[in-house]
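subagent[fold] <- orchestrator: predict structure for attached chain, return tokens only, no commentary.
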Amino acid sequence: MEKKILKKSVYDSSLSEMEEFCVSRGFKKYNAFQAMRWLYFYGRQDFDKMTDIPKKLREILPLNFSTEFPEILNTMDEEDLGGRSRKYLLRLKDGETVESVFINYDKRKTLCVSSQAGCRMGCAFCETSFPGLVRNLSSGEIISQVLLIRKHSGEDITNIVFMGMGEPLDNISAVNRSIAIMTEPNFMGIAPRKITISTCGLLDKLEELENKKCKLAISLNASNDRTRTSLMPVNRKYGLEDIASFTKKKPPSIHNKITLEYVMIKGLNDSKADLKELIRMFSPARVKFNLIPLNKSGSTERMEGMDRPENKVIADFKEKLSRAGFAVTVRFSKAQSINGGCGQLKARQKREGNQYLL
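subagent[fold] -> orchestrator:
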């Protein structure tokens, strides 16, 4: 009886692994490159249509590899005068679910990808952290989000942000492998400067980030350790002074400053004293601030009593940071109405009949 070959996702293979596969079966190394170009540059899923690789290889590849994407369970849309956002609920091969958000505004086509199902960081303002980490995504599951949504939307993705479900640096191996495919000019061809990795501040893992040209965003959210620890348990290991010290070690760059993400919560981190401490700790030459008014979907008990500040408070906070020399933006998150904004992704859904509801 012939033994059944267990197929792995082809998107989980690096170029060197595909080269090894091809050579071990009597083909040329460059045949692996040709196949992967079909997969990533052209988005082809049918090996039989890859006309410039040997016919025998076209027969062998589908016996060993799957080209299936995650299943789209549901989508939700938000539109305004500037463009539109679409949130995708995706089911992975083992039945776990994640969410991705495609933000389509003018020439900028940004995809917010997930790197984990759930998250173990436990940040109080983030829906993804409840009930905790389910598992890491593989590199192929990360890449598949891009390929699937590129195909489904009919749009070329110009920017990738690792700001979906999970802490990217807590799954650094898979994130590194996915970025290698995304940035390869002959595959997906996304410039490293168009990829942003958002972290709660796992400073030790930053040394393992292979593509140092990617943009970095650190979730700060407080001006003192007591408040930050109450919001982000990771602060017990990597406090504010550790983050400030890290930013000062990085050579200043006007084009690639570290972004400090600051979720603004009424009465908790929006005072004049907070401003004074932020200005003391950080250098305008090395960091920029992204102020994020708190997003709430109303289902997280730990967010009880937390609210976003008034618009005037946010504007004043921004103005004073700007006067101190910092570049400052305010992110009134896109896709808030569909719970696709910063901190709102959770991928928990209910089913009515054959319909999965976000």
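orchestrator: received. Logging for downstream: The first strand starts at residue 8 and ends at 9. Residues 350-354 have pLDDT under 50 and may be disordered.
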